[in-house]
Amino acid sequence: MNEQLHALLLADYGAPVTERIEAGYCRARPVTLRINSLKMPAEEGKSALFQAGFSFDEVDWLSSALIMRDIREEDLWHTPLYEEGKVYLQSLSSMLPPLYLAPKEGESVLDMTAAPGGKTTELLALSDGKALITACERDKNRFQRLIFNLQRQGAGRVSAICKDALLLDDFFSFDKILLDAPCSGSGTVSAEREARIDAAFVEKCAVLQEKLLKKAIKLLKKGGEMVYSTCSVLKRENEEVLMRALKGTDARLEPIEAFEGIPLLPSADGTICVCPTERYEGFFLAKIRK
Ligand code: SAM
Questions:
Q1: 62-68 and 32-35: which strand pairing?
Q2: What's the pLDDT tens digit per position in 27-36?
């Protein structure tokens, strides 16, 4: 275990909860995916996977989400379903933010830090392909990946821009915004992925997160809603960023509740922090209304 991350977790949660989080890191999670309803209805996707010899469990809170049994991601890579963008490999936790944003037909939606695009296509799918989505990504290589994924998943109508979101013109405004912020990844540590997380890195992430969140609040229309999420369980990147960014603005936290069965860590009232377990990655979510 990375000693520095261990110390950060202890400071936030105390010993018993830290032990729970670290036990979650060590569990091998099954492959999970989302059937892409832009290309195929969920029920049809399940039949097609079944006919292709795959077995899976369903997820109560999202009919297009599946937990695959006894496979590795590679087992799907060369199947037509995967190659044609009818299924998208995605962790269960990362399917949550678009659900809480719930984009509707005709709404303008900004996915502020979008690559590789799993949540962008989920946002479009949730609106039956009818929300007006702009996806922004700063990194050129990751932007290429975003474009590839949008094309493959039948989401070519998303407007994609390769730009630092902090430099977006304040002239723009959106009904809804997803800020799935770059973070330390302290929720996604696993036995295979060694964590290089220390206090200095967390601080660097938090500074950028606060800037991005303040910018998002500026770009949100009056009456609009946004979701702030990270795949970190550290309070410095989550609650602390939220409180600092909201201070002195006309935006406020809109309380949300977790779906039944989702394993939770203690978090500020009205926010959700998913605990890493054998099914879930650690993840933080909060909804904001302006
Ligand atoms: N939402 C994505 C998904 O579900 O596929 C994952 C987003 S990832 C957590 C954060 C992304 O933010 C990275 O691709 C990173 O390159 C991008 N990013 C970081 N700083 C940015 C900025 N200032 N403007 C735009 N994108 C940024």
A1: antiparallel
A2: 999 999 999 9
